[in-house]
Amino acid sequence: MATIYKRGKFWHAQFSQNGKLMQRSLGVTSKKLAEVKLGEIIRNLELGIVGLGKHSISNERAFQLFQTEVLDKKSPPWRKRQMQHLMHFQTWIENVAKANFSDLRTAEIDEFMASRRPLISDKTWNDELATLKMFYKWAEEREYIRKNAATGVKRYKVDPKAVRIFTKDEIALITKHATPYQLPFYSLLLTTGLRDGELRNLEWSEVDFENGLIFVRIKKSWQPKTRRGRAVPMAKEAREILHGLPRRGSYVFTTANGKAWAPPRQPWCDLLDRIYKKEGIDLRGQVSLHTFRHTFATVCLMSGIDIKVVSEYLGHTSVKMTEKYLHLLPEHKSREMQKVNFQGLLAGGHGA
């Protein structure tokens, strides 16, 4: 007789095979999923297969469980990207490989990734591979496969793109052509360094005017990119902008029904279109909402703030992530050095 039981966080199965009592971790925390796996074990035992064995789960079922157990726990934009990556793989398995995902070897996963190569950039190729590796790792932990064949596929080495920041003239154009409704949002992105999702989900209770701090906190319905909270000091300009905003609900930027703003992609594209039509300056495809964050970080470093402190402001998991802004500093430092006057120090000659 086969049964399930819970040990610690995960459910386990206990069953008899040829008179020998066997136990297996099912790798799931849900009793319902554990019962599904138990049913698979019972069917396999009837076929003479030990435990879950090969082909214990269909491609469709595996992708569904992976979405439920892993992807659905992440932010909607991240989940959407992963689902798009998996969709390409699932289509290839069904129409080209015509096999169960557990049968694929590294060479065949290489073949799939090679088919994607002409269609996407190196970075997107690496992102799709990372999704596949995550899926196969999940399947290995659940004992649906014996070995993660995706680990043998190598990533492309991608040269990091040069960071693009706004010039003063570009900021002036944005200020001139942004709607009164959108301008405070753009101005706060520039003066706080927050990601647009962090600012859209900012609540008034997380704005501490007394101590001059903005708190980025994890919520039930949303979490920061790094899944960690942080405190960001308010610049004088950010404080003034926040003080001038009306309070229509719990969120700083709220919809008519009191919810957080949706991603402002279309208003941003409309703004860049207006700048192009009225000024003849085409910023489309060159800048994004994230450019405000790049500009904030660069201005902080140019102002002499230590890179570790700037890294904390930005919520980077490593200072190495912040180092990408350093290439913008030599010209600034050279310009600043011209302000130094050594003449008085050198008047007495070069002798000791």
Any overview of this molecule?
With 352 residues, this protein is mainly alpha-helical. Strand 1 (3-7) and strand 2 (10-17) form a beta hairpin. The strands form two sheets. It has a three-stranded antiparallel beta sheet with strand order 1-2-3, covered by helices on one side. The chain has a three-stranded antiparallel beta sheet with strand order 4-5-6. Helix 3 packs across helix 5. Helix content is 47%, strand content 8%. The termini are far apart. It has three domains: 1-53; 57-159, DNA polymerase, domain 1 (Orthogonal Bundle); 168-335, Intergrase catalytic core (hpI Integrase, Chain A, Orthogonal Bundle), CATH 1.10.443.10. The chain is elongated, with a radius of gyration of 27 Å. The chain is built from 15 helices and six strands. The protein has helices at residues 31-46, 59-69, 76-97, 106-116, 122-141, 168-177, 183-192, 196-200, 236-243, 265-279, 290-302, 307-314, 319-322, 329-337, 343-346; strands spanning 3-7, 10-17, 20-25, 207-208, 213-216, 230-233.
Indicate the topology:
Blueprint: E1 3-7, E2 10-17, E3 20-25, H1 31-46, H2 59-69, H3 76-97, H4 106-116, H5 122-141, H6 168-177, H7 183-192, H8 196-200, E4 207-208, E5 213-216, E6 230-233, H9 236-243, H10 265-279, H11 290-302, H12 307-314, H13 319-322, H14 329-337, H15 343-346
Antiparallel strand pairs: 1-2, 2-3, 4-5, 5-6
Helix pairs in contact: 2-3, 3-5, 7-9, 7-11, 11-12
